[in-house]
Each structure stands twice: as C-alpha cells, then as structure tokens.
Design goal:
This is Glycerol dehydrogenase. Residues 365-389 are annotated as: Disordered. GO terms for molecular function: glycerol dehydrogenase (NAD+) activity; metal ion binding. The chain is of the alpha/beta class and 389 residues long. Helices cover 52% and strands 10% of the residues. The protein has 14 helices and 8 strands. Helix 9 (254-262) crosses helix 12. The relative contact order is 0.11. The strands form 2 sheets. A 6-stranded parallel beta sheet has the order 1-8-5-4-2-3. It is globular. The two termini are 39 Å apart. The chain folds into 2 domains: 13-160, Rossmann fold (3-Layer(aba) Sandwich); 164-373, Dehydroquinate synthase-like - alpha domain (Dehydroquinate synthase-like, alpha domain). Bound molecules: nicotinamide-adenine-dinucleotide and zinc ion. Nicotinamide-adenine-dinucleotide binds next to helix 2, helix 4, strand 6 and helix 6.
Length: 389
C-alpha cells in the first residue's frame, strides 16, 4: 500500500484566444532549436501564425510530419530527426496522438517538450505519460516520463474553429476524471503520479466535473458557431488542464480500462478517445452500483452532448459474446487500472455491466425524448482484429 502522496504538473499553462501568436516567445525561453511535430491538416491551419511568431522570437521554423498513429516506432523515427538536426525542444502541435508522440520522441532524444493542443479533445497535453498503440490502433501500454511538458499552450479560437465533436469528446474524457479519481480515493489506490492522491489532485478532478456540468452544453453550442465564450474557456480549461492534473494525480479506474478494452475490436475504431471513455464511465457507474438516478442523469447529460451512451453507437449491438469477451479480457489485463476499484471485478461482472450500458442507454434516451441511438454507417468488420493477425 503506497504511503506517499504526489502531484505532477506542467511547467506553465497558457490559454486564450489568439495565444498561438505568442508561441515563439514562450518556446524561446525553453530552447533555441525547436522542431514542430504536426500532421498536414494541423500544419495547414497553423503554419502562417507559427512561422510569424517564431520569426519574431528569432527561432527557425522546422515542421516534421506526424505519421498518424502514436506507436513506439513513430516516436523512434521522430527522435532520430531531433538528434540529426540538433534540436533542443519539440513541440507537439495537434491532437492527443501527435502530442503523445512528441513527448515520447522528446524523451528518447533527451530534450524538453511542449504541448500545443489545437483541439480540446483529450487531457493528454499536460501529463507526464504517453499512451502507446500498435500500428492497428490497439492500446499497448502507458509510457511514463520523469517530467511533464515545460509548456502547454491552447489557443481557444483555434479550438472553437474545429468541429464540435472534438470538444465533446474531450468532455467525455474529462467527465471520467472525477468518476475514476473518487473511486481510486475510496480504494486508497495508487495514482499515475506515483503514490496516493493529494487532496489537491482530488479537488481538481472535482472542479473539472463541476465546471463541465455548468458549462458543457452552452460551450458545445458556442463552438458549433465557432464562438469563444466564457463557457468555452471554462470547458477548454476543464478538458485540458484540470482533467489532465486530475487524472494523473487523482488516478484512473474502470472507465479507462473499458476504453482500452474497446480499442481491441475494430468495431469501435470510428469512435474518438473520449467517446470510448464515455462508454467506460457508464460501465464503471453500473459496476459501482451508483444510485439509479445518478446513472440516469449521467447518461442523459452525455447523450445530450452527443457522446455515445450505448453499445449500438460503439458498433457493438448484437455482436457475439465472443467479441464482447475480447473487450472484457483486455480491460481486465493485470496492468489495467480497473484493479484500482475498491472491489474486484470478474469477467462476467464486466460483461453484464457492458450489456447493461445498452439497456440503460436506450431507456434513458427514450424517457428523455432523445432520438434512438444510431449504429455507425461503416460496414461492420467481420472478424476481431486480434484474430486477424
Ligand atoms: N498521454 C495522455 O495522458 C493521454 C490522455 C488522454 C488521451 N490520450 C491519447 O490521445 C489520443 C487521442 O487524441 P485525440 O482524440 O485528440 O485524437 P487524435 O490526436 O488521434 O486526432 C486528432 C485529429 O484532429 C485533427 N485536428 C487537430 N486539430 C484540428 C483543428 N483545429 N481543426 C480540425 N481538425 C483538427 C487532426 O488532424 C487529427 O486528425 C489517443 O491516443 C489517447 O490514448 C493520451
Ligand atoms: Zn483519457
């Protein structure tokens, strides 16, 4: 049983409309030979602003194209580029996958790293870890670092200009933070920061939750029209900073294990990280025997936001038990955080809880007058990925 308590945080957090124009000034305080890792979509959106900002700060602009999947091999490739060019700081510019790869490459090359999320879709930007996947997009492992990013910079206008689905997904990721942190606290379990949670870590997870219940619906509405309102600023902070500090220093439990399990079957690959996590949050609430009213409120709230609340939306309606068992087995792997719950979970417990997500998701939607859940449009893959290899 761990007896120490720990909190991790990035060196500096900067958020605001138009702050991308100041990136050069902040980066110049960290290193003098930067490399920017971005995919072509993000590069196109940001290159003019970043180039002008770096020019003003006296920094050379070098972009490197991110390959798309945060694998160990991609991190090694980017680390070689960093070493060849003598870079002393890497900037992960984009979504969680790019940012995780920038951290891994920076660590491989022994240099400092900066997160510049261009969507508020995950809590990856602040943490001292990366989530590593296989080429097929199946969860492999968490990789931990001895430091958090030196800087996290979020331009809220850029976030508001992106499709609202990214913000919604980030809300799904961030709502899980409090659900998981309070479960870990009940179990006196370990956090990803090492040791047990501080009161501060727990309070930040709760603040993220409270801000989201207050601001998520108006923020999503504003972002649909590309507007930056105080609600949008609050949600971006909750999704990025508070959820990041809260999950890393408050602990993960079942919601993220169910996410990891869902990545094993290709049926779910159309979903974003936070969308899969939302299925995990509902599953965890069911496993915990949370009050019926609490579960229903959570399902209704997240369904109104546009998050998936049924197996149908995850592409897993009417699938064989064999498919769901693959999800369950992966979610219960020994290194998974589901074992941080204050009780043990068997395969059958988890299988039934997953099936119950479908039942509850459908009935709550019907009662709330929300449309029936829709299955993804793509044709369903015939065989689970792990069996194809
Ligand atoms: N390390 C951590 O602590 C941590 C925490 C949570 C999630 N994650 C990881 O983050 C990853 C998911 O990240 P994600 O959900 O951001 O998806 P992603 O990074 O895989 O994809 C983001 C997509 O959005 C596009 N995009 C980015 N900015 C845009 C903009 N402004 N306008 C339009 N399009 C834009 C990109 O081109 C890309 O296609 C997963 O691998 C997950 O495991 C890591
Ligand atoms: Zn997450």
């Amino acid at each position: 049983m761990p007896t120490t308590r720990s909190l991790l945080a990035p060196g500096r957090y900067v958020q605001g409309r138009g702050v991308l124009a100041d990136l050069g000034t902040y980066v110049a305080a960290i290193g003098s030979v930067p490399l920017i890792l971005a995919d072509p979509v993000v590069r196109q959106l940001t290159e003019a602003t970043v180039t002008e900002s770096f020019r003003q700060a006296g920094l050379a602009v070098r972009f490197e194209e991110f390959g798309g999947i945060p694998t160990a091999a991609e991190a090694r490739r980017v680390a070689d580029v960093l070493s060849d060019r003598g870079c002393d700081v890497i900037i992960g510019l984009g979504g969680g996958s790019t940012i995780d790869t920038a951290k891994a490459a920076g660590d491989n090359a022994g240099i400092r790293w900066v997160s510049v999320p261009t969507v508020a879709s995950t809590d990856a930007p602040t943490s001292a870890l990366s989530v590593v996947y296989s080429e097929e997009g199946v969860f492999e492992t968490y990789r931990f670092y001895s430091r958090n990013p030196d800087l996290v910079l979020v331009d809220t206008q850029l976030v508001a200009n992106a499709p609202a689905r990214f913000l919604v997904s980030g809300i799904g990721d961030a709502l899980a933070t409090w659900i998981e942190a309070r479960a870990v606290q009940r179990a006196n379990g370990p956090t990803l920061a090492g040791g047990m949670a501080t009161h501060t870590g727990i309070a930040l997870a709760k603040l993220s939750w409270d801000l989201l219940w207050e601001n998520a619906l108006p923020a999503v509405e504003a972002v649909r029209s590309n507007l930056v309102t105080p609600a949008v600023e609050a949600v971006v902070e909750a999704n990025t900073l508070l959820s990041g500090l809260g999950f890393e220093s408050g602990g993960l439990a079942a919601a993220h294990s169910v996410h990891d399990g869902l990545t094993v079957v290709p049926h779910t690959h159309h979903l974003m990280h936070g969308e899969k996590v939302n299925i995990g949050s509902i599953t965890q609430l069911i496993l915990e025997a949370a009050a019926a009213e609490e579960i229903r409120e959570f399902i209704e709230f997240t369904a109104r936001l546009g998050l998936p609340t049924t197996l149908t939306e995850a592409g897993l309606d009417h699938v064989d038990d064999e498919v769901l068992r693959m999800v369950v087995e992966a979610a219960l792997a020994p290194e998974e955080t589901i074992h941080n719950l204050p009780f043990s979970v068997s395969e059958n417990d988890l299988l039934d809880a997953l099936k119950m997500v479908e039942e509850l998701g459908r009935s709550v939607r019907a009662e709330a007058g929300l449309p029936e859940p829709r299955a993804p449009q793509e044709e369903r893959p015939p065989v689970p990925a792990a069996r194809m290899a």
